[in-house]
Amino acid sequence: MAAFEYVALDTGGKRTKGVITAETARLARKELLRRKLTPLQLSVSGRARRAGDAEGKAQGGLGSLQLGGGALPSKDVALITRQLATLIRAGSPVEEALRAVAGQAEKPALRRVMHGVRDSVTEGYRLSEALRSERKAFTPLYRSMVGADEASGDLGAVLERLADYLEKAQTMRRKITSALIYPAALAVTALSVIVALMVFVVPRVVEQFDSIGQELPGLTLAMIAISSFLRDFGLYLLIALIIGGAAGARALRNPKVRRRFDGALLATPFIGKLVRSVNAARFGRTLSTLIESGAPVLESLDAAKTTVSNTALREAVADVALAVREGGSLSAAMKKADMFPPLMVYMAASGENSGELGPMLTKSADYLEAEFESTTSVVLNLLEPAIIIAMGGIVTTIVLAILMPILKLNSMALT
């Protein structure tokens, strides 16, 4: 038996809270209905959730899936959304489509989540309501998108639009990750090679110069000094860098520090433009998807704000929502915020004038994403040879510092 905390309405419409025990969430709902209580919220109680988490860790780290379903990877959510859209548009009832998707799911966690949603639909809940029973797997934004247009009766089209959104968001994340990982890995490799030369190779070669008894060139002396510093204090330097990085990451959890950091990031000449484009594209695509799904603009702005990672831009979105709530137009509020790319502001104004705000925002998001992809592609193509050239220059300097005393000895021997 598991304990579930519930919020429900009685026959008189009065809200009531309590705890009920049942084998599953489905049986808990049935018991509440038998008591003539309409469940509004149902969640595993804190003690049961902690026990479930411990049990999940003991079984291999899957975590508790009793009600929340566990956090699913974005690619899995996009996949099941596309499968549901295809099946429902082909004429399958929602319950059968959910059963089919659950049946072909390879991951146990995904299969349990889909069975949980299907059980709720079988009990008479709408799909958007059933998704709340697995709120850990499906974000509020996801549930809002499904619920916004579910009443129209064309659930297949809603899910197809949502699948397009998730797939494009996943593609954008993959591009950002690849753009950051490759140059970082190349730079770390080059730095590791240089440090290895300075710590292990240079000292052994320098030992041969101790018996010469002659003055060494300035470049060689500088290289010896750097090598000695890295050997004596390199470990402490590494520890200091790790501590500094951890302290910086912790400081960024402070809202005020994060706001100043994100504002400075946007002000950086090149990186700021990329960050602005990525966040604006994500905001525009989310907003357009919600608007095309029939959600009100204010609700769409509140939901789209959560997809913006830069706090300075997120505050700008909040200011835009406030201006729209007070009766202003979306494009005018975006222009006044002076934080959005001019193209997006222009496209928003054009969409408002033509009555096609959603499609125009989608076009602006497509353009910004394409611009980001082309810019990062050029930068990566230039960064790779730049890192290699820099590494080659440093290695050449090290080799020269080693060879110069040897060449000097050879010239003295010949004379």
Description:
The chain has 415 residues and is mainly alpha-helical. The chain contains 16 helices and three strands. A three-stranded antiparallel β-sheet has the order 2-1-3. Helix 13 packs antiparallel against helix 14. The N and C termini lie far apart (96 Å). About 6% of the residues have low confidence.
What count of helical segments does DSSP give? 16
Q: What is the overall shape?
A: elongated
What percent strand?
5-15%
Query: Which residues form runs of ≥5 with pLDDT under 50?
Result: 47-70
**Overall radius of gyration:** 30 Å
Strand order of the largest sheet: 2-1-3
Structural class: mainly alpha
Helix amount, in percent?
A: over 70%
Question: What integer is the average pLDDT?
Answer: 79
What's the order of the H and E elements?
Answer: EEHEHHHHHHHHHHHHHHH
Main β-sheet: number of strands, strand sense, barrel status?
3 strands, antiparallel
In whole angstroms, the N-to-C terminal distance is: 96 Å
Secondary-structure map:
Elements: E1 2-9, E2 15-22, H1 25-34, E3 38-44, H2 46-58, H3 74-89, H4 94-104, H5 108-122, H6 127-130, H7 140-150, H8 155-206, H9 218-251, H10 255-267, H11 271-292, H12 297-305, H13 311-325, H14 330-337, H15 342-354, H16 357-414
Helix pairs in contact: 3-4, 3-8, 4-5, 7-8, 8-9, 8-11, 8-16, 9-16, 10-11, 11-12, 11-16, 12-13, 13-14, 14-15, 15-16
Please give a handful of descriptors for the protein shown:
mainly alpha, 16 helices, 73% helix, elongated
